[in-house]
Design a protein that fits this description.
This protein is mainly β and about 280 residues long. The chain has a domain of about 150 residues. It comes from Rhizophagus irregularis (strain DAOM 197198w) (Glomus intraradices). This is F-box domain-containing protein.
Length: about 280
Amino acid sequence: MRSKSIKLSVSLPNEIVLEIFKHIPSRQLTKFMVLSRAMNVEIKKILVKRFNDVFWNPHRRILVMITRYVLDFVPIHNTFDLGFKSLDNENLIATFQQNSSQRSGMVGPNNKRLWGFKLRGDGILRENPLNEPLIYTTWDSPYEQKETRLYTFDSNTDSAHPFIKTFFVTNGAVRIPCDDCEETKGSWTYKLFNNDRKRKNANFTPKVEFEGRNEKKYNGPGNHEVVGTLKTVRIQAPMLLASIEEKKKDRYVGGLKYIVMEGGQHLLKRKRNCVIS
């Protein structure tokens, strides 16, 4: 008769386990944050170090594309470039903000001129310069659902490398006010969760939180519009790390593929022979 095989579980010392964790990708590493409170602390230290190594570089930024639809089918795109501000080491929430000194149509801390965006399909997006505000008129409803897509990118490039890759982070529908938000003095917020059911749980951390401001602008007697700007984005840091580590692409045909800097438009027809940074 064959003897039954006996399986023995062997406990590894914490030092060895933590050394193994240092080589596990961030998305998988977060799944081990259920082992113990002490292990969670050590895993967070690993993730914090990884994040700081990447995002304390001022050229490593996030890009937010907000799409609204006029008459329910005509898309209008606005894009915002935000730089890293701070990281909550306990909750692993990273805060990004728009720099007031950054000019419209310019990318990154050095204000390099943007030409446009190459979409995942055959399209080129150039309708609104980067960091141009959303414009609402009296014809718009008080609230409007929009689609938002988030990316991370490295703005450190030169004229020899006019194409900047974007790595996809996440997307979702947002409901942003279109009026001047008089009760909150223009401020508004919106939170994105992994699914709508968890939105009911007040203790559940959103994957992304947007903050912005709407201001009324008068263009003459009886004529005004509302100007909306995205000011701050708070996002789960492991999502950003996973996007970069996995070089995640946006598969949606209207999603961004890469940023085209000024001068890159002359190379678009020959982009197969170009080096994309």
